[in-house]
Amino acid sequence: MSPQQLISITDLQISFGENTVVSDVSMTLNRGEITTLIGPNGAGKTTLVKAVLGLLEPSGGEITRTDALRIGYMPQKLHIDATFPLTVERFLKTAAFASQSDREQALQAVGANTLLKQSVHSLSGGEMQRVLLARALLRKPELLVLDEPAQGVDINGQVELYNLIARIRDQYGCAVLMISHDLHLVMAATDQVICLNRHICCSGRPEQVSNHPSYKELFGVPGAENLALYSHHHNHQHNEHGDIVPLESSDQPGTDDCCGGHR
After folding, report:
1. Are residues 165 and 239 in the same domain?
2. How confident is residue 24, by pLDDT bands cut at 50, 70 and 90?
3. Mean per-residue pLDDT for 193-197?
């Protein structure tokens, strides 16, 4: 793998009995790059992420990780018994490897430093997502994996959260892999989009994927004009340290060849 690559996936297949959930998936996760998985329910997104995290053994293909890769994971939601007294501080202490200074810095990074002494049960949806993100940052991750990070957050909060994720990417120089259903908003919040429906239907930059026939078929959108407000064009990229550098014309990736989506 090249120095900027953290994970390389080649011809991945995951099956449960005779049911193949993911097939022929090849992709890379690079330092300083936000990659978003989109696709309908049952498309295999969570299964693919579990394989990336090492929680599922592939049925075929190969996953190559850089040595001693540090991964921070933010779940879609967390159910905490309402009768269990738990402050944000105590919740973060469940990450026993982190110091008090680490916990305070992580909350500061996500703009939630005032929540340290609050009960987790009193937090709004957006506040809880920030706390979960802070806990993921305690590992000082090279790869940050986010499962529906804007789940349960209102539209303004979603925009703020996606902007925050981009700032964290810049600050930590990490790769980000996230699952999202916020099709319009995610187009402004990611570098690479992978449209999954058990296999990769199409992939590339947001503006490329939003114009792809398979994307339109899967999500029923008439065209990229519906996404113009949210899509953006990159005039920079990030090197292996997370620093911003000019985008070379030769670095413009294309959209992968596509086959039709499953029905």
Report:
1. yes
2. very high
3. 91
